[in-house]
Amino acid sequence: MNIRLLAALAGASVVLAACSLPLIGSSPTPSPTPRLSSTGHLTIVQPVANTVVTTTTLHVEFQLTGAHIVDITTKKVTPDTGHIHLSIDGILISMNYQLSQDVSMQRYTPGPHILQGEFVAADHVPFSPRLITKVIIEYQPPGST
Questions:
Q1: Of 135, 46, 47, 38, nearest to 83 (Cα)?
Q2: How far apart are CA 38 and CA 133, in angstroms?
Q3: Are 114 and 69 in contact (CB under 8 A)?
Q4: 97 in a domain, yes or no?
Q5: What range does the domain containing 48 cover?
Q6: Using one digit for the tens of pLDDT, what is the confidence trace for 39-92?
Q7: 2-6, 85-89, 129-133: which range is least confident on average?
Q8: Is 90 exposed, middle or buried (0-12, 13-18, 19+ CB in 10 A)?
Q9: How many domains does the chain have?
């Protein structure tokens, strides 16, 4: 092997090693604080599992016990306050400050879909453990049968 090539590789490895050293006077990365556990329990009341939806609007209703919904976002989180994130097929469709909502189904294809609600803290970050409830629905748009 060429001596110049070996010297260049050795020099490059020294520079890369020096770049990975911590800076003098730098502070260590703080460890994350543990996330709060919620006192709440969330369930989907409507639609029930395996509902066949034949309209273009789906009415979704949740029941939340042991906690309540707040309509503000704050970094001062408590285990009994927050709001609901609603997702269909893993895609967030709303950040809800109420227990019920009407959802347009027009953009969804016929077939099964996963409806999910998650009670999150008032800062939009999930509790630990996460409070998630899911049901599978079957969408059959009007005129598809």
A1: 38
A2: 14
A3: no
A4: yes
A5: 41-139
A6: 999 999 999 999 999 999 999 999 999 999 998 889 999 999 999 999 999 999
A7: 2-6
A8: exposed
A9: 1
